[in-house]
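Let's do one together. I've listed all components of the complex below, 1052 residues spread over two lines.
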Amino acid sequence: MANWKNLDTLKSFEELKNAKKVSLKNVLAGEEGALRVGKYCIPMAEGMAYNFAAKAVDDEILSGLQKLADEQELAQKFQELYNGAIINTGEKRMVLHHLTRGQLGEDVFADGVNKREFYLNEVKKIADFANKVHSGEIANGNGEKFTTVVQVGIGGSDLGPRAMYLALENWAKVNGKFKMEAKFISNVDPDDASAVLASVDVAHSLFIIVSKSGTTLETLTNQSFVMDALEKAGLDSAKHLIAVTSETSPLAKSDAFLQAFFMDDYIGGRYSSTSGVGGAVLSLAFGPDVFAEFLKGAAEEDTLSKDADILKNPALLDALIGVYERNVLGFESTAILPYSQALNRFPAHLQQLDMESNGKSVNRFGEKLAYQTGPVIFGEPGTNGQHSFYQLLHQGTTIVPLQFIGFKNNQRGQDVVIKGSTSQEKLNANVAAQIVAFATGKDHENPNKSFDGERPSSIIIGESVNPATLGALLAHFENKVMFQGFLWNVNSFDQEGVQLGKVLATRVLAHETDGALKAYSAIFGL
Amino acid sequence: MANWKNLDTLKSFEELKNAKKVSLKNVLAGEEGALRVGKYCIPMAEGMAYNFAAKAVDDEILSGLQKLADEQELAQKFQELYNGAIINTGEKRMVLHHLTRGQLGEDVFADGVNKREFYLNEVKKIADFANKVHSGEIANGNGEKFTTVVQVGIGGSDLGPRAMYLALENWAKVNGKFKMEAKFISNVDPDDASAVLASVDVAHSLFIIVSKSGTTLETLTNQSFVMDALEKAGLDSAKHLIAVTSETSPLAKSDAFLQAFFMDDYIGGRYSSTSGVGGAVLSLAFGPDVFAEFLKGAAEEDTLSKDADILKNPALLDALIGVYERNVLGFESTAILPYSQALNRFPAHLQQLDMESNGKSVNRFGEKLAYQTGPVIFGEPGTNGQHSFYQLLHQGTTIVPLQFIGFKNNQRGQDVVIKGSTSQEKLNANVAAQIVAFATGKDHENPNKSFDGERPSSIIIGESVNPATLGALLAHFENKVMFQGFLWNVNSFDQEGVQLGKVLATRVLAHETDGALKAYSAIFGL
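Okay, and this is what the predicted structure of the assembly comes out as:
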């Protein structure tokens, strides 16, 4: 059994704090700098690589990070997790999302079944269902094919699947894999459901209602919105709705649905993109084979994440460097900067994944922590961000560590040559240039045109965004966040911080308020 | 003439640092707390209000903030700005975006013309053009009406206009103002232009190429992409392209365009939504009268921003509280949380507006500053964010000040009643609940379910998102950022931090690299 200890009790962490700091200007200078770019780079799954040459580490700090990983028993903790230990201490649950994409260790049994088989079976049910929809065997009341799929969910049931859909939409269109258009309804603001419903042909739309508990107020409300729209169009809503939920939820056995697909309490919403939550919409939109490829990429990355050697385990190394930046260098936020339009909403997904997992002030035993945990995460795709918030990143008073993601090729294969280079070359020239500009800066006699540099970044590089690389990328960040949770000794798999707002909102709607809450409610006439 | 001083030289700032800190739990408790919600609220334009009851201020701190505003001569500096002083010291330019929507002070002359008249004339040219497009007088080569408008621009030529279009799209659809669908191309990633072009009917599309300098590489590249697509479709691209640029730019007199509309060097990209940059696309999409309403709302808010009394000037007060949070309380980031799906991309625009304006380390004279300036800005619409990053906001180790925005009514007027309340009521109950939950927290015997509270927030409340309230909202934030720039004594109107990356990217494309830059370029085969 692993020992669960606070970060600030570890000898290796004390040593790390005392290690000599690295100047990026120095280590990236000259031919030594060029060599470092090649050396500080480790393989990821699916031909990708994690390059950390522009992070403020050197061999001594890397050795300190390895000691930290060993002393905090990170590989062992991951092993216990995938073998079914109760890692989610708050809710006393196992954490099994890795099983949706592979068998990393021993068989795990719960609820009387082998969980890997359970998840595989749900994927198979989804695949069968999707194939029947695509063939027209499952059709609307008039026997016509469904053309559109609309996911109704919020948070983990929305951000991940939406980001994955957008990441693969264009890839699918140019590779003959585009089966159905997908749309998403999430917000309880009625304008969200109303606008999406007005934009689709409801008679040929299939709606996926996604809520693990079957009690998420936003999603149930939007389900009603959808059912109203179907009924107003004279359609039988039970022929248009499917559910992704847990077997014990009120949605599981409801007559309102054509079919229900299951997940369970061992998969958190923000880790559910590789479960039925992502599986239903992605299989319907692109076909089950595309979803299978996505799972394969994730599984390959998971396998790398088992390694105790930080130079063979990119998620582990990324996690350690992030904790070094947060708890030794004192940086408070991290920007995610994909140089790919396909990854447009990937930062929003990672924002949830990271901030909801590790935005905690107590350790896994409920004891208050005396150190910083999860950072603020934000980001937009490059080169757009360059013309927006990069000014602060380059010349602001706050240093923000950066996580670049880049690809050698685009998805659609269309390009133009202007001034001797393609758009793709310009895109990639920009990401290379930014890394160096942030790290090394540039002196200028006019201080307003001067750049201090010393802004650390890493870059993940791949051939192109496709189902397999996307799966690997997702697993990398999921595992990074998990390892950081282990390092901080927090429970990354509950989210008690969302409860108080829910309780108070319910009180407002029941008109059971007083004091400031009553006064704020009155502003809105509630 | 105003005195331009660093924040840390001000007596009032020293006093403010020593003022007794406010506990939100205390001041929002009981009936006093309820009264505070009514009292700490000041009017904005267009029936909106700025409520700061959940900010960590009291009458003593407010009095300190007034002294700070007076000592730093904020109202006088704004007056000098709108009367045409050289406020952009880096580029030695006037800052005139307020003139696009009103005459706040004296006539301002530059380039031999009255600038207010110049901007008005451009708006009129745009209105005439848009009316002719809508009537079919200006049509495609076959004499058919244009149905779609595509804005090609990046940064300030994209984020603001895109956020404004999305904010008004549904309002326009239900109010009979929807004239043309708008799409946007920004990223140099060729997948962006390729996908947008594949999604529109190019034969009936009008393209607006927006670049003040006429030399923005991304935009010129995407212009070529568009021209290629038009030519491949056998169309005369000059009949489909218009430009928004400066009179001295290469685009101004080019035969490639049907018509050019002008802005100038006195309007920064991130402040250009009320100029032709926003005007062309919004007038084409919704009609010139809608754009006029938008300008009217902005002008009304600008007028409020002239007041030296912080309790009559919401932008000024908002700015002062933000600086208090940044430089006295030490908070590093700010979240923008609109409870309105219409404001989906408004946070991305404010991220640029704020971080590009005030992410600076030197003062307006080029001297290094010894204090923190602009914060990191991020945000997503509520209630989506509640199911994502709010965990960290409630229970993380970092305190993030929050800027809520809420509206009594939705735009589309469609709603459902579930469990006794409408979606709109649920939306608003949530924002009221969140403000109180963040501020006052809640103790629990299980520390994992405990909330420390003391998370400050303000809320802007309006009737609904419409052209006038949107204009007022935009002007509020523009002026807030301006006042914060004055407080920090930085030049909020240049962006030298974007230059180094551009220079290095050009070098990569010219294969003139060595060392680390050459090594990073080689990764991408450049």
